[in-house]
Design brief:
Blueprint: H1 4-11, E1 12-16, E2 22-26, H2 28-48, H3 54-61, H4 65-71, H5 75-100, H6 103-123, H7 125-129, H8 136-159, H9 169-178, H10 186-205
Helix pairs in contact: 2-3, 2-5, 5-6, 5-8, 6-8, 6-10
């Protein structure tokens, strides 16, 4: 593995802060490599599980192994980064949908994205279970973000008078994630999307209940 002093100059660039001081930040190309490595690793881990090597991930991503280690010093660091990134994107999508779509449509779009998130998590279950420090802290942090996201969208739809919800919003997510314990194949994705439409139709019907 390359020594840190050999690549620090390439990995970082200086940025000026509002007070005139400077702070180091990753170069744009370094950030692209980081995202590329996470996306590649997500696919490889889903395909090969714990048998996937970091060398293989770097090769498929088209970067050197030194580049991978610059961003992710250990296998656990890479796995955790992928999971946190997926969760952060899912939470950010809730805010984005809320700002750009009507309440119920925003909720539906986000639940569809949640289905894809569950598929990713299931695909990485083997490597997640292999984390040296366990998954308790990782899952706890992720749960807070996801619960906050679904509550944001549900509360918005309820406030607009578009749905009535007689259950904990988390139960909606449990219903969708439950099917993943059986299968995460294409048929399950389609069934999950149908379930989303059924759940939303029920919540809409409940307005007059």
């Amino acid at each position: 593995m390359e020594g840190s002093s050999a690549y620090q100059g390439d990995f970082w660039e200086m940025a000026e802060k509002s007070d005139g001081s400077t702070v180091r930040k990753p170069r744009a190309d370094a950030e692209r490599n980081r995202l590329l490595l996470m996306e590649t690793a997500k696919t490889v881990f889903a395909d090969k599980g714990s048998r996937a090597s970091l060398e293989e991930i770097a090769r498929i991503a088209g970067v050197g192994i030194g580049t991978l280690y610059r961003h992710f010093p250990t296998r656990d660091a890479l796995v955790s980064a992928i999971y946190r990134n997926e969760t952060t994107q899912l939470a950010a999508a809730a805010k984005s949908f809320a700002e750009t779509h009507p309440p119920v449509e925003a909720l539906r779009l986000w639940l569809v994205q949640f289905v894809d998130y569950v598929v990713t998590k299931r695909g990485m279950s083997e490597v997640l279970d292999s984390l040296v420090g366990g998954t308790s802290e990782l899952y706890a942090d992720s749960a807070d973000l996801i619960i906050g996201a679904v509550n944001l969208l549900v509360d918005r739809a309820v406030a607009a008078g578009e749905i009535r919800l007689a259950m904990d919003p988390l139960d909606i997510l449990r219903a969708l994630a439950g099917g993943a314990s059986i299968s995460c194949g294409p048929a399950w994705r389609d069934a999950a999307r149908q379930l989303i439409d059924i759940l939303i139709a029920g919540m809409r019907a409940g307005r007059s209940g």
